[in-house]
Every structure is written in structure tokens, then in C-alpha cells.
Amino acid sequence: MIDAIDYKQAQAQAPTLFPMDGTGKGDGGDAARAASRKMRSGGSQNPIVFNDYESFIKKFTEKPKTTDECWTPKDVYEAVVRYVDEVVTPLDGKQILRPFYPGGDYEHADYPEDGVVIDNPPFSIFSKICRFYMAKGVPFFLFGPGLTIMSACKHGCTAVFTRDSMTFTNGAVVRCNFASNLYGGLLAVTAPRLGELLEACPSQRQKVGLPSYEYPANLLSASDMQTLAKSDEAFAVPREACVIARRLDGMPKGKTLFGDHYLLADDLARAKEKAKEKAKERAKERAKAAIHVELSARERAVVDRLNGRRLDDDRQDRPL
């Protein structure tokens, strides 16, 4: 469990915002449910305190629409909260904060000492937000941009990587990762448990294990032609040498081909396979032509210094 083991060990290397006091250990279920009950109990007049999902969404319907509308599915948000509670820091006795809503001002909000920000902020100012929370010492776990999440690391944050893109309530499929200041001395970490929780969300497209088929060379698909075109292989199919096929007799009952395929005469099938082999060889040649960049002497010296630090660290063999 990289999520739990690395976090607890890394905490010893840096000041903690929420000390691990034993609350919520085990499977995290009881602590998560307690945090959920507290989260929904209400009572706070602070507008950034998260009491329940419906009240939070209401802020978006009462205000003019903005480009930073809340499209985070309820079950996805709850999965993230559960992950933080189970793996990162117990949330029992803490207030969950969501300062990013129309009309909200995260820079001048009232952040209670027992609060932790778990929210999906505007990615357009993501680095600015991380810098602000790091400077103010506000605990946070934020949704962030998938490909550029490590830009937050230079501000002292930990980049948290999960495995899949997310489907938001407006239908957009977006690659997201996360940034947090709750992991102590870790620069970056993968979050397999978070991936499990997100995959189980009904709002996310459920991946179905589809069977794999291997088709005969006489079957021509659009994918075949795309592969050849990508490698600049010349290949043409006369109409009189093929016939349309929407399924093959040997396929399981009820199964059909996706899109129109064509049965080819034997000579064209052989020519297609020969062209595909040439395309593979050309792809290998292009890969060999990639520019290989070596470490400079200066960079090698930096790595050597890092190696020395690792040798001095008796935790170097911790599982990652």
C-alpha cells in the first residue's frame, strides 16, 4: 500500500498539518462514515465549510454561470473525501472546506484551524492557488490538471497521480491528478486506492472486459488502412477484389464487426500483410531515429549528490 506506507514514513521528515494520532486507522470505513456524518450535520455559517453536496451545488444555480462551474460528480467528490480520510489524514473532527464557487474569494475566506480544503479549483490559476495555500499553511487536497500537475511540486506540494481520466457531469472526459500539502516530504506519489474508489463510482464510465478477436488477413478494416497510411505505405483496394462484411460466420452468436469491413481476395490479403510488416519496420526505424539525450557532467554530479543522500537515509528501501 504505497498510499499509506509512504505517507506515514514521509510525515516524519517534515512538519505535519494534521498529525497522525491513530484515528481512522484500519479500513477507514468508520472514520469515513463519521466524517461524512459531521460533514452533513451543518451548523457552520462559514460559506466555505462544506455541509452537504446539495447546498454546495445551490451556490452555482443561484449565481450567474461562469467558466468555472462545478461539474464534479457527487460520487467522485465523496470518493476523494473517503480517500483522504482513509489514507492521507483522518477527517474526524475536522471541517471540510470548499471555497471555489461563483462569488467565492478563496484568498479572503475564513479558514478555520480544523479545516482542510478538498475541492476542484479553476485550473487556469492552479499554481497561484497552490502557492497561496502553501504560504498560509492551509491544509489542502485539490483536483488538478493531469499533464502539468508536477508544476505544483516546486511550491512544496506533492503531486498525486491516479490512473484514469474522469467523466464530469457535463460529459467532458478530463485527465485529472491531484496536489496536496498533506504528504510530508514526498514530491510525487501514485494513489492506487484512489483509483479503485474512483473506478467504483457509478458516474464514471464502467469499463467492461471486452473479448479480443484475431481476424484473418482476408478481412480489411479501417484500422488496417489507418496503420498503413500512418507509415506512408501505398496500398489500394479495387472494388472488384472485395465484398462487404459486417460479421464473420466464426464469430460468437449475436456478435458483429464494428463498422463495415471487407473480405479481400487472397492476393490482396497477402499484399496487405506485407505492407503492414513494412509499416512495422518503418515504425522501428523512426523509433531508432529519436534523439537520445544523455546527462551532462553537471547533471551527473547532481545525481551523485542525490545518491549520497539516499545512502544516508535509512528509509531508502521503503516500498514505492
Task: Name its key features.
3-stranded antiparallel beta sheet; disordered C terminus; 320 residues; 6-stranded mixed beta sheet; disordered N terminus; extended; 11 strands; alpha/beta; 36% helix; 12% strand
Question: How many distinct domains?
Answer: 2
Q: Residue share in helices?
A: 25-40%
Q: Could you name the ranges where pLDDT drops below 50 across 5 or more consecutive residues?
A: 1-29, 31-43, 63-68, 316-320
Let me know the average pLDDT. 80
| Helix/strand structural class | alpha/beta
How are strands sequenced across the largest beta sheet?
Answer: 1-2-3-7-4-8
The main sheet comes to: 6 strands, mixed
H-E string: HHHHEEHEEEEEEHEHEEHH
Shape: extended
Quantity of strands, as a count:
11
Count of helical regions: 9
Radius of gyration: 26 Å
User: How big a fraction of the residues is strand?
Assistant: 5-15%
N→C terminal distance: 9 Å
Structural account:
The chain has 320 residues and is of the alpha/beta class. The protein folds into two domains: 2-199, no CATH class; 210-310, no CATH class. Helix content is 36%, strand content 12%. The chain is built from nine helices and eleven strands. The chain has helices spanning 2-11, 29-40, 53-62, 74-88, 126-136, 192-199, 222-230, 266-288, 297-312, and strands spanning 95-97, 115-119, 140-145, 158-161, 166-167, 173-174, 176-180, 188-190, 219-220, 242-245, 261-264. The strands form three sheets. It has a six-stranded mixed β-sheet with strand order 1-2-3-7-4-8, sandwiched between helices. The chain has a three-stranded antiparallel β-sheet with strand order 9-11-10. Helix 2 crosses helix 4, helix 4 (74-88) runs antiparallel to helix 6 (192-199) and helix 7 (222-230) packs across helix 8. The radius of gyration is 26 Å and the shape is extended. Residues 1-29, 31-43, 63-68 and 316-320 have low confidence and may be disordered.
